[in-house]
């Protein structure tokens, strides 16, 4: 009998961390690996934000904050949602947590009963399906492909809804595909969900600022679904604050109260120093962050050009976030120098061992024919990684 619970045994390790740890171990062993695994900005946190953290320590912000966060931070989030997203949320509708990851699991824990269905458009972010399993729910996937920019249609969504559907969970901009839904597409989705008041939309908007083509639109801005939507966002991507672990949800009152209840028993709230620093971050003008977006944009264009020359990669131009998600079906079913490639996880291992480039296979994103590269890495590393893959794969 396993000492580990059945519930945990059903879960997989997070593949993003599995592959990044593998790359780290190889590097520590002296192997020259380029890691394009984890999606985390490679910039330093802006100085103003760091200073706010020093000040918070000196001002003795060393005790528990209110469970859903300091009122000043919830006010700053409320102001940000108004300024950037035209959304009206009172500070009491906001729950600050240890990263957007926790905000999502708070919401899922609050609404999912055993056997409830959560719709996940595939590809989806690795942790969604595992979180759904953790709270006893069942994920129901909607397949997409590179030909539709990995996006679902309102018709596909409506066909997937059953009496057990409790939530729709997606990210736009999307990790891993780099696509985002347009205003028209979001409106069509909102119109479907509005017909089913028992369904909650969990809209993960953590990449909102990393968008090269459009102005980010939140689905909560459609009045017909405002009362049915949980907006998820956080400090990790826009402010390069991944390790500070601050995320938040903005929800209808009943759901905000439920998140507070979950969090009060699980974590008692988020780190106080990081919360204080986040107030300063949110009060910055978003234009102060533009240098990061411009840099990602430049890297995206470089990688896209170089990727076109890699044999067997079918790639679209991602319009947002910082990932490429090429379709590598060409290699599936082949034997590459003695390695059977059954799916993209095998292919990612092959690349790691043979090209010394680490990426994440698409299986855990729900797309076994694709692989994910993060381009939150230096231009030199990106150029070298593309060269290594081109040389390695050119022979097959
Ligand atoms: N959602 C998506 C789509 C992500 O890529 C990530 C990864 N950082 C998260 C949520 C979690 O972010 P956080 O660091 O705020 O927990
Ligand atoms: N969200 C990032 C990624 O997808 C960080 C890793 C994680 O949280 O899984 O790579």
In short, what is this structure?
The protein is an alpha/beta fold and 396 residues long. The protein has 14 helices and 14 strands.
Describe the structure.
This protein has 396 residues and is α/β, with parallel strands linked by helices. It folds into two domains: 6-44 and 289-393, Aspartate Aminotransferase, domain 1 (Alpha-Beta Complex); 47-285, 3-Layer(aba) Sandwich (Aspartate Aminotransferase, domain 2). Helices cover 40% and strands 13% of the residues. It has 14 helices and 14 strands. Strand 10 (335-336) and strand 11 (339-340) form a beta hairpin. Helix 4 (71-85) runs parallel beside helix 11 (272-283), helix 5 (100-111) runs parallel beside helix 6 and helix 5 crosses helix 10 (253-266). The radius of gyration is 21 Å and the shape is globular. The model has no long low-confidence stretch (mean pLDDT 97). 4'-deoxy-4'-aminopyridoxal-5'-phosphate binds next to helix 5.
Task: Report the uncertain regions.
Answer: none
Please name the fourth-level CATH homologous superfamily of the largest domain: Type I PLP-dependent aspartate aminotransferase-like (Major domain)
Helix count from the secondary structure assignment: 14
CATH topology of the largest domain: Aspartate Aminotransferase, domain 2
N- to C-terminal distance: 46 Å
Q: In the residues, how many domains can be counted?
A: 2
pLDDT average, as an integer?
Answer: 97
What is the subunit arrangement here?
single chain
From the alpha carbons, calculate the radius of gyration and give it in angstroms.
Answer: 21 Å
Share of helix among residues?
A: 40-55%
The portion of residues forming beta strands comes to: 5-15%
Structural class assignment: alpha/beta
Give the tally of β-strands: 14
């Amino acid at each position: 009998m396993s000492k580990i619970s059945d519930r945990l045994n059903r879960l997989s390790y997070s593949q993003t961390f599995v592959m990044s740890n593998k790359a780290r171990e190889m590097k520590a062993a002296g192997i020259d690996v380029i890691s394009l695994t984890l999606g985390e900005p490679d910039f330093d946190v802006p100085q103003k934000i760091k200073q706010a953290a020093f000040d918070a320590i000196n001002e003795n912000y060393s005790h528990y904050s209110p469970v859903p966060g300091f009122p000043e931070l919830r006010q700053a989030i409320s102001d940000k949602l108004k300024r950037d997203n035209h959304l009206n949320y009172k500070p009491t509708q906001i729950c600050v947590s240890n990263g957007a990851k926790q905000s999502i699991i708070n919401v899922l824990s609050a609404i999912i009963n055993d056997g409830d269905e959560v719709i996940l458009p595939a590809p989806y972010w690795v942790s969604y399906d595992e979180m759904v399993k953790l709270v006893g729910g069942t994920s129901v996937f909607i397949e997409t492909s590179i030909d539709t920019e990995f996006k679902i249609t309102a018709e596909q969504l409506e066909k997937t809804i059953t009496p057990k559907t409790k939530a729709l969970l997606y990210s736009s901009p999307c990790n891993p595909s780099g696509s985002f839904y347009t205003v028209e597409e979001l409106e069509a989705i909102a119109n479907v969900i509005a017909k089913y008041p028992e369904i909650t939309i969990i809209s993960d908007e953590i990449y909102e600022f990393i968008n090269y083509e459009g102005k980010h639109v939140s689905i909560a801005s459609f009045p017909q679904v405002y009362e049915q939507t949980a907006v998820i966002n956080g400090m990790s991507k826009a402010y390069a604050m991944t390790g500070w672990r601050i995320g938040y949800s903005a929800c209808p009152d009943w759901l905000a109260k439920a998140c507070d209840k979950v969090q009060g028993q699980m974590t008692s709230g988020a780190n106080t120093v990081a919360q204080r620093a986040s107030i300063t971050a949110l009060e910055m003008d978003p234009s102060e962050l533009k240098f990061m977006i411009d840099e990602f944009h430049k890297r995206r264009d470089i990688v896209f050009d170089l990727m076109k020359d890699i044999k067997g990669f079918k790639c679209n131009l991602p319009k947002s976030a910082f990932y490429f998600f090429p379709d590598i079906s060409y290699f599936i079913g082949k034997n590459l120098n003695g390695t059977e490639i059954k799916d993209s996880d095998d292919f990612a291992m092959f690349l790691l061992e043979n090209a010394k480039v680490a990426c994440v296979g698409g299986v855990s994103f729900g797309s076994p024919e694709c692989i994910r590269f993060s381009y939150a890495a230096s231009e030199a590393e990106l150029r070298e990684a593309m060269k290594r893959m081109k040389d390695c794969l050119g022979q097959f």
